[in-house]
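Exercise: predict the fold of this chain.
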Amino acid sequence: MEFHIRMMGATPDINTIEDALRVIDPAALADVDGSGLLRVAAMMDAAQLAASLSQAGYPVAAHQVTQLPSICCGGCSG
């Protein structure tokens, strides 16, 4: 799943966020752009993502998480 979360305040520490996400999904990836948009690719739902971010010190409510439609073509059988 791919998610976008608009982060407020200081730029989040991506390593801290990825460490928290990888407790649920060892392959999770995250990055943040210059405008504060956090992008996450992980196998979890919005509530799990929000809880992981909150545990990492970045409180986010599930309604702040936008799940993007899948772009999976199925070519890798994933």
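Check your answer against the key: The CA atoms of residues 1 and 74 lie 14 Å apart.
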